[in-house]
Amino acid sequence: TWVNVPQGPPDAILGITEAFKADAFPEKINLGVGAYRDDSGKPYVLPSVRAAEKKIIESNLDKEYAGITGVPSFTKAAALLAYGPNSTAISEDRIAITQSISGTGALRIGGAFFERFFPGSKTIYIPTPSWANHNAVFKDSGLQVEKYRYYNQTTIGLDFEGMISDIKDAPKGSIILLHACAHNPTGIDPTEAQWRKISKVVMERGHYPFFDMAYQGFASGDTDRDAFAVRQFIKDGHSIALAQSFAKNMGLYGERAGAFSIVCESAEEKERIDSQIKILVRPLYSNPPIHGARIAASILNDPKLNRQWLGEVKGMADRIISMRALLKSNLEDLGSKHDWSHITSQIGMFAYTGLKPDQMDKLAKEHSVYATKDGRISVAGITTDNVRRLADSIFKVTG
Ligand code: LMR
């Protein structure tokens, strides 16, 4: 039956973990997937998550199905985290929100909703480059995927002119995918002034903004600051869609806790959209898993745990910032003549090193340092113990 099924390539990001596992060298380094590690290179379960889990177990909850759109105490708190305490969309009950299988699931529900209901050409514009999975998620949802310029290879910075010009040139009423903060893979975000300009152009062209916010809190250590773009667009009068993930900022990777929401024009519109999201989700997976959502809800809804969590998010962000500085100074100490200032100016989980695919190949084959082909390294995988060897390896392949 399946003789016609061809062998597929490994996943661009998750395939790196497979290659890493197969390497027997004890000092191997995995900077592939964006997953936080502590300074001894171990996965980190946030103490606030442990405390929330304890509370949940002690309250002896049942394991009944959640509703189709998930655990209400979670979605309510997720909306508040993203849109902020002063959001009129929240106070006017205009946000349609559903729990999702983390950020990917949120993007996929969004893709499916747009495919079914978006008026016009159903074309989504994503940045070049973008998270490797964006293209596949939206293609598989049945949308047409196009690109806008984002990264300037020469300056290793934002190609703001190119971005604005491509968004202007996109046919009126296109969907524009924007990384809310900590752009993946480049770690390069627009400034606040640039966001205002982007918002204006998106408005003028009648485009529809779809934000992917997978790193709220992770970029700056401040969840409000990282939500700037989302809130600015709403202030400017946009209706937006939003994908949220709690994988990184709560370290809930495998729990798959996320949310998809649409800011509607009225409570009545919200009711209609909600009803269609339910019709869409039911045949996909019925209803989402409850444990991760309960953890996130209990952290977000308990003032003491919430404060503790914010401190821990900041701790993760700060460790990443200090590893950036350490990597840069180690490269300089080794005598590297390249300008590595982008390593410390970029933010979030990743550094976009500017290394070429053949150099990334060499890093893996000759130095057992694993990361994606595009030159992205997960800074969260750097530790005070491995940074020297990492810098030395990068120095050797870049000359
Ligand atoms: C990444 O970009 O490494 C993360 O978002 C994990 C993933 O699912 O790709």
Secondary-structure map:
Layout (H helix, E strand, L loop, with lengths): L13 H9 L6 E2 L16 H12 L13 H12 L4 H4 L3 E7 H16 L5 E6 L3 H9 L3 E6 L1 E2 L4 E2 L1 H10 L5 E5 L12 H13 L3 E6 L9 H4 L1 H8 L5 E5 L11 E7 L3 H19 L5 H11 L1 H31 L7 H5 L4 E3 L4 H11 L1 E2 L5 E3 L8 H12 L1
Parallel strand pairs: 1-12, 3-4, 3-7, 7-8, 8-9
Antiparallel strand pairs: 2-10, 5-6, 9-10, 11-13
The protein binds (2S)-2-hydroxybutanedioic acid (LMR).
GO cellular component, one term: mitochondrion
GO molecular function: L-aspartate:2-oxoglutarate aminotransferase activity; pyridoxal phosphate binding
Catalytic activity: L-aspartate + 2-oxoglutarate = oxaloacetate + L-glutamate
Folded structure, characterized:
The chain is an alpha/beta fold and 399 residues long. It folds into two domains: 14-45 and 318-398, Aspartate Aminotransferase, domain 1, CATH 3.90.1150; 65-301, Type I PLP-dependent aspartate aminotransferase-like (Major domain) (Aspartate Aminotransferase, domain 2). It has 16 helices and 13 strands. It has a seven-stranded mixed sheet. It has a two-stranded parallel ribbon with strand order 1-12. Helix 8 links the parallel strand 7 (175-179) and strand 8. Helix 2 packs across helix 12, helix 2 packs antiparallel against helix 13 (303-333) and helix 12 (291-301) packs across helix 13 (303-333). The radius of gyration is 21 Å and the shape is globular. The termini are far apart. (2S)-2-hydroxybutanedioic acid is lined by residues 13, 33-34, 131, 133, 184. Residues 13, 33-34, 131, 133, 184 line the site of (2S)-2-hydroxybutanedioic acid. It catalyses: L-aspartate + 2-oxoglutarate = oxaloacetate + L-glutamate. Keywords: Aminotransferase, Pyridoxal phosphate, Transferase. It comes from Xylona heveae (strain CBS 132557 / TC161). InterPro entries: Aminotransferase_I/II_large, Asp_trans, NHTrfase_class1_PyrdxlP-BS, PyrdxlP-dep_Trfase, PyrdxlP-dep_Trfase_major, PyrdxlP-dep_Trfase_small. Residues 27-394 form the Aminotransferase class I/classII large domain.
